[in-house]
Every structure is written in structure tokens, then in C-alpha cells.
Design brief:
Shape: globular
Number of helices: 8
Strand order of the largest sheet: 1-4-7-10-13
Radius of gyration: 22 Å
Largest sheet: 5 strands, parallel
Distance between the termini: 61 Å
Structural class: alpha/beta
Length: 297
């Protein structure tokens, strides 16, 4: 292949990739002061969150009781600055999609308020995560300490991301909650949509392959094993044949439910309090409280 042939191929390919029609829905046009949220910065925010919520286990290992206030203060300040910028980027992205103008200035105050509200929630997030650590420890005879759970178990990393992403979603932050949840998915193999509602003392044993859908409601003291899917059975369509958004379509798991590995629970059904779903089971109908299901429906 001659140099001119090679140049022609490259030029033709660039032209095709730059055609407006081929970019429809796939191109975010940058405007000054209106960047996309940064995955790298969000990773730093999650690392800071983990260091704040579990000091000594994440972040600087040299922290002690006499310096903990200083370390948390530094991390909180850094987190607030980064989070404000990222939330503003998320708000600007959302507004740009609506073709609004003059967004960055209008979003700054709102972004800072949302960041402050999230940080204000951190003590409550830590309280709930402490119950998740307890549930993981009590549910695994191989675990020797809470420290082992926090340091080694993927469920805790996934739940830090989920509980922060969920609060951001409740605050109305666009895009960023989903990015944070997908970061945990990539890191742990656990896919929890930030829209799901999950109670205290929640744990996932092993974890890889677990999927929890956006409209799931999970009660307290619930335990899942690897490979569990809490998904949608079907997608109602509108007149144009497109899925209707915002419909409650995922399962409800009441308190004290256990779901064993590779079980699939689909649709807006209720798994009653204290029920057990066996491994490799396909469930598409309600289960009464304290019931057991070990055979495929």
C-alpha cells in the first residue's frame, strides 16, 4: 500500500466518523466551562469517602485517635471541593442536553449546596454501613474480624459506592450516581443501581455477578449470594414501541430474606419476610412470608 493510498484511507475514515448523522446521540459537544464529569476525579472522591467512612482502612494508614479529626477534616474539605465541581459538571451536562443556555453560573450554587448535603449525610451513611459490616461478619464463619470484612470483602466497597450514589440520586444529581455505581460494578462485579432502596444489615456473600435493578426495594437483614439477579420480567411499551420509563418493575424483598446463588427473581413481585430462595431458582410470582422455594417454577 502506497503512502497516498494510506493517507486516502485515513482521510476517508475521519470524514465518515465526523459526519453529523453518525454522531447523533453519541457526541457531547464541549463548551467552555461546561465539561463532562471526570471518571478519574470521581474515583478520587470515592477513595476520600472510603477514607472518611472507614479511617485507617482506606487512605492514610497512619491515622490514629489523636489525629483522626485532622485527617477527616482534610479529606472532607478535599471531597467537598471535588464533589462541587463534579456535580456542577453533571448539572451542566443535563442542562446542555435540554439546550439551555448560561448554565455554569446558575449551577455553581446548586452544586455546592448538593455537595454540602451529601457530606452532611456521611455520618448516617457510616452508621448504616456499620450494620452492613456486622451483617457480613455474622453471616460468614470464615471472617475473623470486622477489619477483615472492611479491608477484603467486595460487598463493602460496592455498598460504599451504592449508598453514596443513592443519596446523590435522591438529591437530584444527574449522571454522577450512575457513574459511581458502575465504578463499583467494574471493581467488584456487583451491579447495584443507585435507584434501588436497601435497608440496614444488608450483605452479599462473594458478590460477583449480583444485579439489583433500579426499582428494587430491599428490607432489613437481607442476604444475597453470588450470581443473584433482581431484575425486570418485561418492559411495558408506549405507542411507539419504546420502553416506558419510571415504572416499578423490580422485586420487593422484605426483611430477613435469604437468596442463594444464581437465583433469578423477576418482576414487581414480593418475597415475603423471612423467606428463603434456593440456588438456581427462577421466581416470577409472590412468595408468602416464611416460605421456601427450592425447585424451579
Amino acid at each position: 500500500m502506497s503512502t497516498s493510498d494510506f493517507t486516502h484511507i485515513l482521510t476517508r475514515t475521519v470524514d465518515k466518523l465526523s459526519e453529523p448523522k453518525s454522531l447523533e446521540g453519541l457526541f457531547h459537544q464541549h463548551r467552555d466551562g461546561n465539561p463532562l464529569p471526570s471518571g478519574k476525579t470521581l474515583e478520587e472522591i470515592i477513595e476520600l469517602s472510603r477514607a472518611i467512612l472507614f479511617p485507617g482502612y482506606f487512605g492514610k494508614s497512619s491515622v490514629n485517635i489523636s489525629t483522626i479529626r485532622y485527617h477527616i477534616g482534610v479529606n472532607i474539605e478535599r471531597m467537598y471541593t471535588l464533589l462541587s465541581d463534579q456535580i456542577m459538571a453533571g448539572l451542566c451536562f443535563s442542562c446542555t442536553a435540554s439546550h439551555e443556555a448560561g448554565i455554569p453560573q446558575a449551577c455553581r450554587c446548586k452544586a455546592e449546596t448538593m455537595a454540602a448535603r451529601l457530606i452532611e449525610k456521611l455520618p448516617e451513611i457510616r452508621r448504616i454501613l456499620a450494620t452492613d459490616v456486622e451483617a457480613a461478619y455474622n453471616g460468614d464463619p470464615a471472617a475473623e474480624s470486622y477489619g477483615e470484612i472492611i479491608s477484603c470483602y467486595p460487598v463493602i466497597k460496592a455498598l460504599v459506592n451504592y449508598r453514596i450514589a443513592h443519596e446523590l440520586l435522591v438529591l437530584g444529581v444527574p449522571l454522577i450516581p450512575r457513574i459511581i455505581s458502575e465504578m463499583a460494578h467494574s471493581e467488584t462485579g456487583i451491579d447495584i443501581h443507585p435507584g434501588a432502596q436497601i435497608g440496614h444489615h444488608f450483605t452479599i456473600d462473594h458478590g460477583t455477578g449480583v444485579v439489583i435493578g433500579a426499582t428494587c426495594i430491599i428490607g432489613n437483614n437481607v442476604k444475597l449470594y453470588q450470581g443473584v439477579t433482581l431484575g425486570a420480567k418485561s418492559f411495558p411499551l408506549d405507542a411507539q414501541g419504546n420502553p416506558i420509563k419510571g415504572i416499578a418493575r423490580h422485586p420487593i424483598l422484605e426483611d430477613n430474606v435469604v437468596v442463594y446463588s444464581n437465583a433469578t427473581i423477576l418482576g414487581r413481585i414480593t418475597i415475603g419476610r423471612g423467606s428463603i430462595v434456593g440456588a438456581n431458582i427462577w421466581v416470577t410470582e409472590d412468595m408468602e412470608p416464611e416460605s421456601r422455594k427450592y425447585k424451579r417454577q
